[in-house]
Structures are given as structure tokens and as C-alpha cells.
Amino acid sequence: MDIGTRRLRLRPVAPHDAPLLHGLDADPVVMEFVTGGEATAPAMITDWVIPRSQAQFRECGTGLWVAFDRRTRLFTGWVWLRAPRHSAVPELELSYRLRRESWHRGLATEAASALISVAFTETGTERIFASTHPDNMRSQRVMQKLGMRLAAEHLRREQFDDGFTGHDVEYEICRADWLRTRRPAAVAPSGPRHRARGPGTVEMTA
Ligand SMILES: CC(C)(COP(=O)(O)OP(=O)(O)OC[C@H]1O[C@@H](n2cnc3c(N)ncnc32)[C@H](O)[C@@H]1OP(=O)(O)O)[C@@H](O)C(=O)NCCC(=O)NCCS
């Protein structure tokens, strides 16, 4: 299934996307709050990230969605919406990472908003949450624009050599809150092909 937003096309990641993901993670500014600036090893992408996402799509219908500019067809980045491995409740975890050239245009919010809309209308998900480093204000601003609220602050013991800590803040949005702040028209009929009209049009193509 593909998902279209006003400016982006999202599709499940495939093995041939590995060089795009690797290029994205090779930018130390992009990785500042993810790893402290370290690039991801290519083997991690080919042997773990992509197969894991493919398994998530098979099991839950969602995983790592790669995003392309609808006009230029260039790779923009990705949004990952996945079922956490050890969760006993119907919830999904959200994360996102865009090429630096694509920042500050509202694209992360646009892509994540479309996936949240599909998750709440097409699946039984009750809660979507996202975590980031407490200093990652860009990411937290995206969460706030998505209607998420601060739910928890996790303090971790890890302290990396460069001073980067494993602390993070967790934001969440629950189905009831999402429905309350969306017009009823945003709830799309289920089916392989439909267009949901509401805040941010979402197209789905089987
Ligand atoms: C986080 C990220 C996805 C945001 O992408 P984006 O497309 O630029 O996000 P948007 O344009 O939708 O929104 C960004 C918001 O942050 C705001 N912002 C940007 N820099 C900021 C800063 N230093 N402090 C506070 N807010 C900031 C922008 O003004 C915008 O809010 P606004 O629309 O109210 O003005 C992108 O910066 C990225 O890929 N970062 C690297 C990876 C990462 O950190 N991922 C998150 C980890 S979960």
C-alpha cells in the first residue's frame, strides 16, 4: 500500500532503499540526537532495519515508510510507525528522520499526521507514542504539532563517552483525543482504495 499526502508519497521500505537510508544516517547533523552524530553501519540497515520493518508490515500492516517528494520524486526521509515488541496493549511507536535539505517545510508533520490518521482509522490502535532526546526541540515541536502531549520523562543510566545520555521524553496521543480534535470526516471508510478528507488529505493506494 502507498500513502499520498499533499507533497509526499510514502511506501513501505524495500531492500533496494538501503543506500538512501545509509546516506541519510551518514549526516552527523541528522544523527545528532539519535546517536550523538555517529553514522549507522550499512550492515545494520541491510541486516536489521529493513528486514525488521518488512516483518512489521507483515504482522501489523505498518513499519518503516520511506517518503518521496511527489513533485521531484527525490527521497525525503522516513517515518517509522511500528508495534513495540514488548507491549501488551494496542499501541504504536512513531519516529521520523528527514534529509537535512527537507527540514523546516512541515514535511515531518505532514507525513506523520497521515500515518497517525491511517492508524487510528484503519487499525485498533488506542495510543501512539514517540520519544526523543530532551534537547531535540525540533522533534518535540513536531510531536506537539501532531497533537501529542508530554507523557513521561525517562532517565537512563547510560552515559556515552561524548557526554550523550540515554535520557528521553515521551509524547503520546490517544485515539479518543485524536477523534475529539478531528472532524468526523477524517475517519475514512475502510477498503483497499480510498481518500480520507479531513485535516491533511490522505490517499491510500493498494
Ligand atoms: C525532527 C525532524 C524530523 C523535523 O522535520 P521537519 O520536516 O523540519 O519538521 P516540521 O517542519 O514539520 O516541524 C519542525 C518544527 O520545529 C521547529 N523548530 C525547528 N528548529 C527548532 C529549534 N531549534 N527549537 C525549537 N523548535 C524548532 C520549527 O519551527 C517547526 O515548528 P513550527 O512549524 O511551529 O514553526 C528533522 O529535523 C529531522 O529529521 N531531524 C533529525 C532526526 C531526528 O532528530 N528525529 C527525531 C528523533 S525521534
CATH architecture assignment name: 3-Layer(aba) Sandwich
Helix content class: 25-40%
The CATH homology group name: Gcn5-related N-acetyltransferase (GNAT)
CATH class category: Alpha Beta
Q: What is the third-level CATH name, the topology? A: Aminopeptidase
Strand content: 25-35%
Cα separation of the termini? 4 Å
Strand order of the largest sheet: 7-8-6-5-4-3-2-1-10-9
Low-confidence stretches: 184-199
Bound molecules: coenzyme A
Per DSSP, the total helix count is 6
The largest sheet is: 10 strands, mixed
Protein name: Putative acetyltransferase
Pfam families: Acetyltransf_3
Domain N-acetyltransferase: 8-184
Keywords: Transferase
Describe the protein's architecture and organization.
Strand 3 (64-69) and strand 4 (75-82) form a beta hairpin. A 10-stranded mixed β-sheet has the order 7-8-6-5-4-3-2-1-10-9, sandwiched between helices. The chain is an alpha+beta fold. The chain contains 6 helices and 10 strands. Helix 1 (18-25) packs across helix 3 (42-60). It is 31% helix and 27% strand. The chain is globular and about 40 Å long. It has a single domain, classed as Aminopeptidase (3-Layer(aba) Sandwich). Residues 30, 33-34, 77, 95-98, 103-109, 132, 136-139, 141-142 line the site of coenzyme A (COA). GO terms for molecular function: acyltransferase activity, transferring groups other than amino-acyl groups. Residues 187-206 are annotated as: Disordered. InterPro entries: Acyl_CoA_acyltransferase, GNAT_dom, N-acetyltransferase. Pfam families: Acetyltransf_3.
